[in-house]
Amino acid sequence: MDSVVPRIVLASSSPRRKMLLHQLDIPFDIRVSEIDETIQGDIPAEEFARRLAFEKAEAIARSLTDTIVIGADTIVVDERGILGKPQHEQEAFQMLQRLSGKVHRVITGVAVISTYLPQNALVNHETTQVKIAALSDRDIQCYIHTGEPLDKAGAYAIQGKGAMFVEWIHGCYNNVVGLPLFLLIRMLKNITHSTNMSCGHLLS
């Protein structure tokens, strides 16, 4: 019996996650879940990222059958806690000042839910350390004026102009962009292993 290539849905509107998933040459659809992403400082950052990833995937998966749903959530964490997406330029400025000259963590929670029978769900996370160079107020203002920081966790984009401030990283680069592909591939392999399914030659 030939293996079945499942329908895959990405539960995210992020153009960066869409770009990364396209690299795998696996067909997928996009469905956006509307869940509350209010930062909760009373739980560990890793657990928070994993919880949001699962909630995003589960919100889409509950209305689908014969589908594998991928959810992800990326957060930036320093010694003071979680940094979300800045709501305005002043908040972006404060975030970049906070990260300037220091090492922080980027954590992406990933959830993969199969709505095939038997149903299954996997949740994991990836962590990357990032060192931002010491930034002057002028550096920060010039970057903010590009408009890039305003929809990014931690107010910078490593795949964009924000790369000029990244002194080094330790860990998965794609994780900082928004979707750790190596981790995702392992999770997809595991969730399809017990069924007669394949996600193409990358997962064979």
UniProtKB/TrEMBL annotation:
NCBIfam families: maf. It is an enzyme of class 3 (hydrolase). Signal peptide: none annotated. SUPFAM superfamilies: ITPase-like. Nucleoside triphosphate pyrophosphatase that hydrolyzes dTTP and UTP. May have a dual role in cell division arrest and in preventing the incorporation of modified nucleotides into cellular nucleic acids. The keyword Ligase does not apply. It comes from Vecturithrix granuli. The lineage of its organism: Bacteria, Candidatus Moduliflexota, Candidatus Vecturitrichia, Candidatus Vecturitrichales, Candidatus Vecturitrichaceae. Gene3D superfamilies: 3.90.950.10. InterPro entries: ITPase-like_fam, Maf-like. This is dTTP/UTP pyrophosphatase. Transmembrane segments: none annotated. Its EC number is 3.6.1.9.
